[in-house]
Amino acid sequence: MRRKVAAFLLSVFGWQVSFSIPQCDKYVLVGAPHTSNWDFPFGLLALWAVGLHFNWVGKHTLFRWPFGRLMRRLGGIPVDRRGSTGFVKKVIDIFNSRDRFVLAIAPEGTRSRTDYWKPGFYHIAVATGVPIALGFIDYPHKQIGVDCLVVPSGDMEADVQILSAYYQDKIGKRPEKQGPVRIRSTSIPPSS
Length: 192
What we know:
By secondary structure, the protein is of the alpha/beta class. It has helices at 2-12, 39-49, 68-73, 87-97, 120-128, 156-167; strands at 16-19, 26-32, 55-59, 76-79, 101-105, 132-138, 143-150.
C-alpha cells in the first residue's frame, strides 16, 4: 500500500523515479545534492515507491518531540554533529550485526553550501566492506533515483573523483547551495 501511495504522490508532483542497481543486502546509500527541505520527503517517497527497506540518518533536532517517535518509526537514526559522538563506530557495529542493512545518508550534512562532504559514509563503507549506492535528486529534470553502485577501493581521493564525476550534472532545488563533491584529505577513519 505504501508503495502505491508513494508512487502516486510522486507522479502528482511530476517526478520520475529510477532504481537500477543490482540487488545486494547491505550498502550505504548516498543522497545528493541536498539543498532543500524538500529533498527529504521526495527522497523518502522515492525509496518507498521502489519498495526499499532502509534506515536513514538525520540531524538530531528532527527527533525531538513531537516528531521524534515518528522519525524513528520511519527508520531514522539521529546524529548530533556538535561533537565526536562515536556515530560512525555505532553504525559500523549495526552493519556488522545484521544480515541486511541499507543506510541512506546525505553526506553534505546540511542544506547550506559546504566545501566538503562529511566522510562518515565513506569510512562506514570501507570498514564494513559494503558498496556505496549513488542516489540523486535532479530538480530541473524532476528525476530521483539510485542507479550506480561503487565499491570503495580505500583510496579516498580516487573514489571521490568517481563520485564527483557522477554528480556533476545533478542539480539541486537551490543550485547556489550546492557545493563541490570532495572530502578533506585529513579525514581519518574511526579506530576499530
